[in-house]
Amino acid sequence: MMKYMMFLLLLLLLFKNYWFIQFMVMMMMMMMIYSVKMNMYYELVGYSMSLDLLSMLLILLLLWIFSLMFMASKMIYEEKIFVIYFLKGNLVLLLFLLLTFSYLNIFYFYLLFESSMIIMLLLVMGFGSQYERMSASFYMLFYTLVTSLPLLLMIFYYLENYNMLMMNWWVNSNLYKYMVIFLMLSFLVKMPMYMLHYWLPKAHVEASVFGSMLLAGILLKLGGYGLIRIGKLLFLNYKILYQYMIIYGLLSSLLMSIICLCQIDMKVMIALSSVVHMNFMMSGYFTYFSLGIMGCFIIMISHGLCSSGLFCLVGIIYDRVKSRSLVLLKGVMNLVPVMAFLWFLLCISNMSAPPSLNLLGEIMLMNSILSWLFFMFMIMMLYFIISVIFSIYLFSIIQMGKVTYLLMKLDIYLQEFLLLVMHLLPLNMMIMLSFYY
């Protein structure tokens, strides 16, 4: 792991060329694919650091999304606006996230976990697309700070009583039953859970394209990753809490699917669909069956690619017409059939149609929830129907209809086409690697 850290530090300190840094991040991903074995057991790589299948695939997703993010932010490179600050900020964020997924020490994990949110806040504040980005940044800051302080206190409590901070060796201690809510709260806000999600649509709307890609593709996965790591500590003592969370997650997914149908801003709609998927993932995780945890993990990977691609498509349209309103944007299929085809592929992936990796993850989550309680079948069927309606509605309202004057100059460049194809290829090809799961 040290060679990757030194690799990133050298990029951060010595190199300033935009495309060279993007190429080096891709090379780093290829090096990691060939150098680390993908297995379910911990492979120690240094003091308090290790990799297993969970952290390995999330690191590969991290590097893939970062390399695509550099490709999507060509406007910053072309306009020469704060290019150095953009490069340095993103490389620091990449370094923090890489260490976050590598550390097993819960205090180091917490420190890097929150530091990455602060760097993301600065990127949203500095490179956001509208003047309300300041209020969105403060929403994100206070939601994360207020909910992460109890986690820090719980870490100190655990250190004082057990003198151990390694996540894979945590014992099932009898913590006071209300404290466990505070232990999970920081991760549930990052997912985000319904009623704790108000920062997410504001941050997505005000962020630029690369900011939305990072938020949806990587930072929402920190909550699921943290829950999987601490689940062993909590499950045996708090089964009754887990049962309430399963029901709450399913009802939240159903309600948020209905709310998605009422939106007219494309970015808000896609951001709320992320809340829908994350709450369904949370519901499957809290069954704490191995099938549910694996399904949670697969949804984290597939949603990172799918939602990132959808935000790229919204960014391409917004760059041309300066609008995200579904009232104004119609008839894209008549002007750019290739873009309509890419919209179609990403929308059917968003509703978990084959051969998307989303399909495998949702089948696993559905089986784990029905194994826990079969009567959840009715709520789950309503959720699946409405989520499919939402994806069809999003596709049809943009692609069909009479072309408005705003769209007359709409086109797509080869670089943007390649960017979207590089989202779709792993999303639809990784289901062939499902024997790893």
From TrEMBL:
GO terms for cellular component: mitochondrial membrane. Pfam families: Oxidored_q5_N, Proton_antipo_M. It is a multi-pass membrane protein. It is an enzyme of class 7 (translocase). Core subunit of the mitochondrial membrane respiratory chain NADH dehydrogenase (Complex I) which catalyzes electron transfer from NADH through the respiratory chain, using ubiquinone as an electron acceptor. Essential for the catalytic activity and assembly of complex I. Core subunit of the mitochondrial membrane respiratory chain NADH dehydrogenase (Complex I) that is believed to belong to the minimal assembly required for catalysis. Complex I functions in the transfer of electrons from NADH to the respiratory chain. The immediate electron acceptor for the enzyme is believed to be ubiquinone. Belongs to the complex I subunit 4 family. This is NADH-ubiquinone oxidoreductase chain 4.
